[in-house]
Structures are given as structure tokens and as C-alpha cells.
Amino acid sequence: MLSNPLRRSRTPHMLTKGYTKLFEIQSRTFTPILEGKDILGKARTGEGKTLSFALPIIELLLKEGRNGRGRAPRALCMAPTRELAHQVGKEFADIGPSLASTCVYGGAPYMPQESAIRRGLDVIIGTPGRLKDHLDKGTLKLTDIKYLILDEADRMLEQGFVEAIDEIQKMTIAQSGGKPQMILFSATMPDFILSTVKNYMPNHVTVDTVGSSRNRTSKGVDHLAIKCPWTERRAVIADVVQMYSGAHGRTIIFTQTKKDANELALETDLRQEVQVLHGDIPQKQREMSLQAFRDGKVRCLVATDVAARGLDIPEVDLVVQCEPPKDVESYIHRSGRTGRAGRTGTCICFYKPNQEDAMRYVERRAGISFRRIGAPQPEDVIKASARDAFRSLEAINDSVLAHFKDAARELIEERGAEAALAAALAHISGATEIKTRSLLSSMADYTTLHIKVETEIRTKGFVWTLIRKYFPEDAHNEIKGLRLQKDKQGSVFDVPTKMVDGIMAAWNDSPTVTMEVCKELPELEAQENSYGGGGYGGGGYGGRSYGGRGGGYGGRGRGGNSYGRGGGRGGSRHNGGGGGGRYQGGGGFRR
């Protein structure tokens, strides 16, 4: 955070709200806006863009001073969504309570908005569509507009507001008799934005806090990725939330569709109280859910992108993205709901085996590197649950404890103090059973094994030779998803958990080759989108064994039985047919 002239500010409410210094984007825009310059701004999400224009605009309005019923607004701010418009409106109201401001957007009744306009305004904030409606009806006049703000202009462009924005800009100039001071924030610079800047802001000042940095995401966010088939996703998400956020943190889970959001909230193992946020939820209910989330009454939101932009909830600990979004900007803004205002946070993106390319695309365009991790293991989830349960005990009033002391003494006599307390904590946390899960694939009832060697492994055939030579025969056909380490010093693969003891008993470490249950995934070789429609997920674990049409690891190649035979020209015992995929071959994948 940077020092700034807040002590000279006309907005003492800034200090009462805890603001004593400004972030870089706020500090760099403050003086140019006060000097009347047009601003083209670009900053990472979570760096306080709203305050960067709200504070100086409020300063200017307070300095000018003006009262009177029915006065036309002097500042107009356009935002792409109801949620962002509402957030901007709240910022103006909190910092400049003596100014009259209102927020207008679709999905809300016209009458209260029209009444606020008739009473007189200093600032009006709204979505382009509803602002245009009020202008067309004649209820809103732009005769006194001196400041025009376009917040997240690229998002408004994506949502089809180009025509409405252009008309509002032209109406503002026509009705006010001159060009207002313009402030435009945009994460990207498509043609429409460049045209707007050229036509309406020829002498603008550019304020860019991202610069040449490749990383376009918030600075304090740790980006993690978990490979997981769709069938296992809900259970793994519940474990992820428990481990990284728990009962006392705040989590936002993003889904691609409203249907997915509803299903995840209703049919899930999530232990936290959940609220859903998407376009079909009435606006009043959405506002109530967001306020409950801010207040800590609700700890988990399941949302579509309606919540991804502009919502300033500074203490979100975890963001979960159920799959890679269709565009990189969505990833950036979703992940930006955590790590805000100088805090740190975690963003975990789930992906299916056939979405490797999509993940690499996000990495390349967002300028980040995902740390690939496995699904949380039972012991880790239980430890996190125990910490939550222990913390929950602090909230119990002493007067309540007296009613449980007799039962506690009886339980201690029966089971011993340590065992009794452990059982109570397990029950409180909901951790009543241990279910193993693969680190490599997230599949339940599978365990990931890790072979390490001192010499370089050139091909997977070396690992398969070890497996066939030293593993029990009944385990040969049960090996799944074998991958080599990036440094060629080892390999990981999945086996049914029920076979682990037998495999480990049959195996003997040598001075140069060792094997253990994998506790943390090593960095693995990059993998093409080689998994077919079956894979770990659709059609069962492995689809049609490892061969078949789209089954298991054989890409989309036809043919190929469980031994990888007949999957296309060039098929081998280890890699199946060559026609079905670019990486592990076509119709099959030999154990």
C-alpha cells in the first residue's frame, strides 16, 4: 500500500472505515482525476479499482457542493452486472454519505428507481440496459453530467452492451453541452475500447499497474489444479473445502451452469452451510445471500460467473473452479475473488483428463503456473476437521458444559479420556470413516504408488517390466494411469487400495529402485489430451477396459482389447494402436 493525501480528504468516512493508505492503482489515479484528466486504467482484480475512481469523484462533488430537490446527477457510472453496480453504489454511499446516489439495474422494479431520480441525485450507477431504459422514458436527464465512468468496459462489451454504451455517451455529450471527464477501466483492449478511447478520450492518461508482467492474476493467489473425473468431483470438492477453508473460512465455488450450481449445493458432501448465486435467483435473495456471506453467517457460496466480477468480499480464503472456464478472463476474475486487498488466498481448478490442453492454455494466457496436486488424503481431511472441531469448542458457553459433565465422566470411565475426546471430536467434525482416494486421479478406493530410481527412465516399458516381475500376478491388470516424472527419476500409478498390502509385501526395495505410497505428487511429464470418453469417468473406471472405442487411456481409437491389441496401425503391446490418440496410442494401454 502507498501513502496518499487521505488526511487532506473531504471524506472522513474513509478513516472510520479503516482506510489509512491507498493501493497503487488508487494512489496513481487520485491526482490526475482531481486535475480533470481522462483516465484509461488497467489493474489486477482485487487491487481496489472501485475506490480509485470513487474517492476522487466524491472529493470533486463535495468541493463543488450542490443541493436541491430534483437535481440531475453530475456523475454517471456504468457497470456490466447488477452485482458490480450494486457494489459500486455501496462504495459511493459508504464513503460519501452526504451525497445522493442510487443504483439502477434490470430485474428490479422501476418505481423506486424513478422516485430516487425525481428526488435528486449527485451520482447514478447502473447497468447500460436499465440506464438506457430510463433515458428513453425521459425519467433520467444527463444535462449536468461532468464525470462519466465505464467500469470493466470489456465485460460490458462481451455482454452485448456496445450499442447502449455508445448511445449513452452520445446522449451525455448532447444533453450536457460538452464532453464529460471520462474514466475507463478495462482488463483487455478490444477494438471497441480502443475506438472509445480514440473518439472520446484523445488526451487521456494511462494508469497500468500490470505492466509487462506475464501474471495477470492477483498477486497473493496460489493457483492449484486437481485432476478429477466428473463422477468424483462433488466428493473431492467437499474435501478440498474442508481442508483449505474449513468451517471458519469463506469459500466461493464456481460452476459453468446454473444447473450445476443447484445440483452441487443440493447433492453434495459439503459440511458448510451453502447458498446459491446465479441469474435465476431473485435479486433480493442474491443480495441477502451476499450479505450473509460477508457477515460470516454463510461460509460457502456456489455461483456462476454472476459473482465473478466486482464483488468486493475481502476475506475469501478459497476459490474453487469446477472446471477450466471457456475463456481466460473468466479464470482471472474468478480467482480474483480471493487474495484481495493485500491478503493471500488459494484458487483450485478441477479438470478432467481430457482437459490438459485447456489448463495449459490458461497457464499461458494468464501468465501463471498451476501446481498440480492430488485430492486431499483422508488423514489430511481428518486433521483439518479436528482443527475445526477444536476451534468450535471455544464458542461453547460454560453454563452449557455443566449439563454434560456427568455424561463426560461416564464416557471417560468407559473409554479413557483420550479415546473419549477423540471420538467426540470425530463426531463433531463428521469424520466417521476413512475413504482412500488416488492422488493421481482422485478416484475413490484407489491408492497412488511411487517408484523412484537413481537412473533415468527412458520409457514406461521399464516400469511395466518392474511391475510384471515383482507385483503379484493378479495386480498386473489393475494398474491405472501410469505416468513418468518430468525429471525421469520415477513413476506414479494407481492400484486398488485393497491390493496395496499384497503389492508392498511382494516388493523389495533395492539400492537403486524404491517404492512407496505416494504422499505428494511429483512434477510429471506433460500429457496430451489422450484420454477417451471412458477414461476414469464416463462408462466406469476405464470405460471398455483400456481399449474399446474411446475407453480408458486409448484416446478415440477404434478397436484395441484390454491388452492393447488391434487398436490401429503401429499398435504395440505397451501403447496400443496408433490411430486413437497422440500420446498413449490408440485402442489400448498395456499394463
Write the topology of this structure.
Layout: H1 13-16, H2 24-34, E1 39-42, H3 49-64, E2 75-78, H4 82-95, E3 101-104, H5 110-119, E4 123-126, H6 128-137, E5 147-150, H7 153-158, H8 162-176, E6 181-185, H9 191-200, E7 205-208, E8 221-227, H10 233-244, E9 251-254, H11 258-266, E10 274-277, H12 283-295, E11 300-303, E12 318-321, H13 328-335, E13 345-351, H14 356-366, E14 371-373, H15 378-393, H16 398-401, H17 405-415, H18 417-429, E15 446-453, H19 460-470, E16 480-484, E17 490-496, H20 500-506, E18 513-517
Parallel strand pairs: 1-6, 1-7, 2-4, 2-5, 3-4, 5-6, 8-13, 8-14, 9-11, 9-12, 10-11, 12-13
Antiparallel strand pairs: 15-17, 15-18, 16-17
Helix pairs in contact: 2-3, 3-4, 6-8, 10-15, 13-14, 15-18, 17-18
Please characterize this protein's 3D structure:
The structure is a single chain. The protein is of the alpha/beta class and 591 residues long. It folds into five domains: 5-208, Rossmann fold, CATH 3.40.50.300; 221-376, P-loop containing nucleotide triphosphate hydrolases (Rossmann fold); 385-394 and 402-428, no CATH class; 446-517, Alpha-Beta Plaits (2-Layer Sandwich), CATH 3.30.70.2280; 527-591, no CATH class. The protein has helices at 13-16, 24-34, 49-64, 82-95, 110-119, 128-137, 153-158, 162-176, 191-200, 233-244, 258-266, 283-295, 328-335, 356-366, 378-393, 398-401, 405-415, 417-429, 460-470, 500-506; strands at residues 39-42, 75-78, 101-104, 123-126, 147-150, 181-185, 205-208, 221-227, 251-254, 274-277, 300-303, 318-321, 345-351, 371-373, 446-453, 480-484, 490-496, 513-517. α2 (24-34) packs parallel to α3 (49-64). The longest helix has 16 residues, at 49-64. The chain starts with 12 loop residues before the first helix and ends in a 74-residue tail after the last strand. Belongs to the DEAD box helicase family. DDX21/DDX50 subfamily.
